[in-house]
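Section 3.1: Structural characterization of target chains.
Under the original work plan, the team committed to producing a structural model for every single-chain target entering the pipeline before any wet-lab resources were allocated. The record below documents one such target. The sequence was received from the expression subgroup and is listed exactly as submitted; it comprises 146 residues.
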Amino acid sequence: MDLTKEFPRSVHAKWLGIVQLGRTVDKGKALAHGNIGDYHYNCPMDQAVFGFLGIDHEALLTVIKNAKNDAEIEAYLAPFVAKKSAQELDQWSHDYVAHKPEGESLEYFINLRNQLAPDRTDVTSWADLLDLDEKREVPLRTPVTA
């Protein structure tokens, strides 16, 4: 994986039934090969998935560096995922992709969104903003009213 030439998987893409995990592994592969570009392995979004699954990021990076293929990485990750029920995985994934920035990160988020797509005020989650930034199609979202 060369993140100086291509994008990692979308946050929305599920691997082993959970969002963000494949993207995190893509960034780990790029870091291991010295071509991570502007991406960051173990960023706050990665840390959330590590925390949920109970994975040590350094241990996973070591597995990634030594793996001959994705099957070996998947074999390492599968027991962590297996500790969660399908309902827990679905709920966490749903909440994760819907997460909206707050506080200081909200200002940063709005500034970035306004640079990327000022007409997309419907984009309110980090997952969708990253997809926009990486030139993926993001469906129009209907604002939720209280």
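The mean pLDDT is 94.
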